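Journal club side-thread
Mid-discussion, someone asked how the predicted structure for our own chain would compare to the paper's figures. Pasting it here so we can look after the session.
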Amino acid sequence: MPSSTNKPTTTPTNTELGDALREIGLRSFDDSLDDFVARATRARWSVIQLLEEIVRAEREERARRSVERHLGRAHLGRFKPVCDFDWNWPRSIDREAVERVLTLGFVERSENVVLVAPQGLGKTMLAKNIVHSAVLAGHSALFITASELLLDLSKQETARALDRRLRHYAGFHVLAVDEIGYLAYDNTAADLLFQIVTRRYERRPVVLTTNLAFSAWDTVFPNAACATALIDRLTHHAEIIAIEGESYRRREAEEHKKKRRAERNGRA
């Protein structure tokens, strides 16, 4: 019988191997396959060690991509990190309460967070930091102004479309609604916000910022029959943090003006 000859095995290049890994959904080595192969070769990993490292790397990469997706959906935009917050500027602020909220225990307890402060004292910045912390911890979250939220809900043309949007806003682990109190809304808008809060009540928290005490919310929702029930559901299980003082942004603007004046005088 003629002897059979074994065909030589062709070792795939790292580029081909990288393409194959992407085809089966493993993207953790998109830019680091050469380094990974080199480390495995130097350390003489066993098959078990090699598989463990692949699993670990893929888990980390999927967690990173998940955070990126959630950050994109959160609509945070640019914001100042809480480490840059000037705690000495407000006349009154419960720093311990703010730091406690940033540990996210309120998410597990389904408790709301309400930040009450005049304009320019950092309540929006703190709310964005809370949302950012929630996303980094693996939660889905959304930051949206009250006007954007209510405009989106009010323009839905059918009951089915409205219910779909209500379920959308009810689905986030954390929903932050910014700037309640700067505009007045009609009874329909009050009812829509009440529906959002009710769907999330004791299930998932709402983070809310307002420049008005709750006793003044009748100026935001004048004649709305649900206003009292809305406030009741928001505050029943809630961390309410009041901030008092002068506008931080106004101080920054005045300091910037003084700096420019000094620069002009120096040039003169």
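Post-session note: The chain has a mean pLDDT of 88.
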